[in-house]
Write a structure and sequence with these properties.
The chain contains seven helices and 17 strands. With about 280 residues, it is of the alpha+beta class. The strands form four sheets. A seven-stranded antiparallel sheet has the order 7-6-10-3-4-9-8, with no helix packed on it. Strand 3 and strand 4 form a beta hairpin. Helix 4 crosses helix 5. It is globular. The N and C termini lie far apart (about 55 Å).
């Protein structure tokens, strides 16, 4: 179905479609907007004593959803500890109570947001390439604060993973656009599996096209870099660890600094530490 949709005309994402699903979600309107004002529509005690769940009429906070962790930031200067979603409504977990009707100013931590945009977008690109090359499926995905893990139901060798890494980085540096679209009602009805409601598709042309609720960069060049760290056997397939963007840069810089320190102890050049 996704391949069919990729060749068909699709409706560009509309605010009306997203705003009909509970809280108005600013991150779907402008992923770069981090400051906003809103009105509290509900404030209820959380299951954990001492915490409250705040509902707003509009929010820029992305919730924990689709394997991606929630944004962090503040409401009226107070820390937002977590954000969850249920039936389209966003719940902001805080330690303070904000009465219904209160106007609040929200701020999203941009560094965390952009980090997740890089990781999620890089995952799309490599997953699309891996699934196309090895006729497999992405059967598991988790974006942690340290690494991203992806599970595939195919036995892929490390050498093959590294070849996809080279292809993915070449694609990233070509700076392809990221397109977020909705299939029209007619296209949803024509799919092999009945689809209802708003279906959000994320596409990196020539690399990947899939339904996804996450936040992404506007162009592949903003991912910067992808680097695979490991390929481990997992049931009938493999689990890969990957870093993208600034995470990959920090990791490679740390590895180089360590190699350079070892080289100085051995009185050799960094590229000769293994032989030494």
């Amino acid at each position: 179905f996704l391949q069919q949709i990729g060749q068909a005309s699709m409706d560009r994402i509309s605010n009306a479609q997203m705003n009909s699903l509970g809280t108005r979600k600013i991150y779907y309107e402008d992923v770069h907007q981090t400051d906003f004002t809103a009105v509290v529509t509900e404030c209820v005690p959380a299951k954990e004593e001492g915490y409250y769940l705040i509902v707003l009429d509009v929010s820029a906070f992305f919730p924990e959803e689709g394997g991606q962790s929630a944004d962090k930031g503040t409401l009226n200067g107070q820390e937002v500890l977590d954000v969850s979603i249920k039936q389209g409504i966003l719940y902001h977990k805080m330690t303070c109570e904000l009465p219904t009707g209160t106007e609040v100013t929200g701020h999203v931590d941009w560094n965390r947001r952009f980090d997740f945009m890089q990781q999620h977008s890089g995952e799309h690109i490599v997953s699309g390439m891996l699934c196309a090359a090895f006729h497999c499926d992405n059967v598991g995905f988790h974006m942690g604060t340290d690494v991203v893990t992806i599970d595939y139901n195919a036995d892929i060798r490390w050498e093959q993973v590294l070849e996809v890494e080279r292809q993915a980085n070449r694609y990233i540096w070509e700076d392809h656009p990221c397109r977020v679209t909705f299939p029209s009602p007619a296209e949803r009805e024509a799919s092999k599996k009945a689809l209802t409601g708003a279906v959000r598709l994320t596409e990196f042309p020539g690399a990947d096209l899939c339904a996804c609720c996450g936040t992404h960069v506007s162009g592949s060049g903003q991912v910067g870099l992808v680097k695979f760290l490991s390929c481990q056997k997992l049931r009938e397939g493999v689990r890969l660890e990957i870093l993208c963007g600034a995470r990959a840069y920090r990791y490679l810089s740390q590895v180089y600094d360590q190699d350079r320190a070892v080289a100085q102890l051995l009185s050799v050049k960094p590229q000769d530490t293994l032989a030494a």
